[in-house]
Amino acid sequence: MSEALRRRALLGAGAALALAPAARAQIWPDRPVRLIVPVSPGGSIDPLARLIARHLQEALGQPVVVENHPGAGGNIAFEMVARARPDGHTLLVGWDSLAINPALFPKVGYDPLRDFAPVIQTVRTAQLLVVRPGLPAAGLAEFLDLTRRQPITLGSPGNGSIGHLAAELLKAHAGAEWTHVPYKGGGPALADLMAGHIDAVFLTLPAATEHVRAGRIRAIAVSATARAPALPAVPTVAESGLAGFEVTSWQGLLAPAGTEATILRRLNAETARILALPEVVSQLAGQGFEPVSGPPEALATRLAEDVPRWPGIVKLAGARVD
C-alpha cells in the first residue's frame, strides 16, 4: 500500500471512531432497557419506577424491564449500575440513600458523584411516621412518651435509608428509644406493620397514604416543614413540638458514568414529558409525590449538595451500619 493510501485509510478509521458515539446514540435503544430498583416491590420507589417504565417503553420502542435488587441499604443496586456498561441499557432508580450511604457504611463500592451520570430528578416527598392501629398513641408527643416507658419496635425500608436516618434524627432530638428493624424496602416493612409485627415505621409519604386513608395504619407526623396536601390532617414533626425538624426525600434516574450525552438528553426529555402527563400528575399528587423534572444538571447539583451534607447529620443522629 502506498503512503498516500495508508494515510487515507488511517484518516477514514479515525473518522469512523469519532462518529461511533453519535452512531450508537442514534440507534439506541436496540434491546430492552433495565430499570434497576434498589428495594423490594411495594413501598414508594417500586410503583413509581413501574409507572415511568410503562410510559417510557412506549416512547423508546423497546421493553423497559423493572428489576428489584434490594439489600445493603440500596448498595447492591447502586454497585450493579455503577459497574454496568454505559450504553444506556441499564438505568438506576436512585434515591437519597445513594448520597447517604457513603457516610453511613464503613465502605461502599461506588462513588455517588463519580460513577453515575444523572438523568433527571423525578419527584420529592416527605417522610411519614406511621404506627399500627392498636398502639396507644394519638400523636407524636404520646408516641415519644410511650417509647420511654415500654419497648417499641420501629421499622424502616432498610439500613441507610432516609426512613432509617429520619428515625435516628427524631430519636436524637427527642431523647426517645426504640429497637430499629430494617427491611429490604418499604413494602415488607409496611406489611409487617399492618400485621402488627412491629409498632411503627418511617416511610415516604406515598408508600403509606392509601393505607392511612383506609384506616389500616395511623399517621403520627410528617417530616416536611408544611403539612402534606395528600394527608392534610396529619401535623408536621415541627408542629408537634420539635421545631426545625425537616427530612425530605427525592427520587431520580441515573445511568452509569460515561453514558452518551445524547442518550441522557433523550431520557431526560422523555421522562419529563411523562411526569407532565395529566394522569401522571394526578396520580402522583394523590399519593403525596411532587413531580420535579429539570435538566440532568439539576440532579447533579442535588447530589453534589447532599453528599457532603449527610456525614454531619449521620454523626448527630449517631447512626451507623456495620
Summarize the structure.
By secondary structure, this protein is α/β, with parallel strands linked by helices. The chain has helices spanning 3-27, 45-60, 75-82, 97-104, 140-149, 162-174, 186-194, 205-213, 261-275, 278-287, 296-317; strands at 33-37, 64-68, 90-95, 116-131, 153-156, 179-182, 200-204, 218-222, 248-256, 290-293.
Describe what this molecule looks like in 3D.
The chain is α/β, with parallel strands linked by helices. It folds into two domains: 30-125 and 249-317, 3-Layer(aba) Sandwich (D-Maltodextrin-Binding Protein, domain 2), CATH 3.40.190.150; 126-222, Periplasmic binding protein-like II (D-Maltodextrin-Binding Protein, domain 2), CATH 3.40.190. Helices cover 45% and strands 20% of the residues. The protein has helices at 3-27, 45-60, 75-82, 97-104, 140-149, 162-174, 186-194, 205-213, 261-275, 278-287, 296-317, and strands at residues 33-37, 64-68, 90-95, 116-131, 153-156, 179-182, 200-204, 218-222, 248-256, 290-293. Strands 1, 2, 3, 4, 5, 6, 7, 8, 9 and 10 form a ten-stranded mixed sheet that branches. The mean pLDDT is 90.
Protein topology:
Blueprint: H1 3-27, E1 33-37, H2 45-60, E2 64-68, H3 75-82, E3 90-95, H4 97-104, E4 116-131, H5 140-149, E5 153-156, H6 162-174, E6 179-182, H7 186-194, E7 200-204, H8 205-213, E8 218-222, E9 248-256, H9 261-275, H10 278-287, E10 290-293, H11 296-317
Parallel strand pairs: 1-2, 1-3, 5-6, 5-7
Antiparallel strand pairs: 3-9, 4-7, 4-8, 4-9, 4-10
Helix pairs in contact: 2-9, 4-11, 6-11
Order of helices and strands: HEHEHEHEHEHEHEHEEHHEH
CATH topology of the largest domain: D-Maltodextrin-Binding Protein, domain 2
What is the makeup of the main sheet?
10 strands, mixed
Number of domains: 2
Q: State the separation between the terminal residues, measured CA to CA.
A: 64 Å
CATH domain class name of the largest domain = Alpha Beta
Q: Helicity range of the residues?
A: 40-55%
The chain-level mean pLDDT equals: 90
Q: What share of residues are in beta strands?
A: 15-25%
List the total number of helices: 11
CATH superfamily of the largest domain: Bordetella uptake gene, domain 1
Rg for CA atoms: 22 Å
The structure class reads: alpha/beta
How many distinct beta strands? 10
| Gross morphology | globular
**CATH architecture title of the largest domain:** 3-Layer(aba) Sandwich
Low-confidence stretches: none
Signal peptide: 1-25
InterPro entries: BUG, Bug_dom1
Organism: Roseicella aerolata
Family: Belongs to the UPF0065 (bug) family.
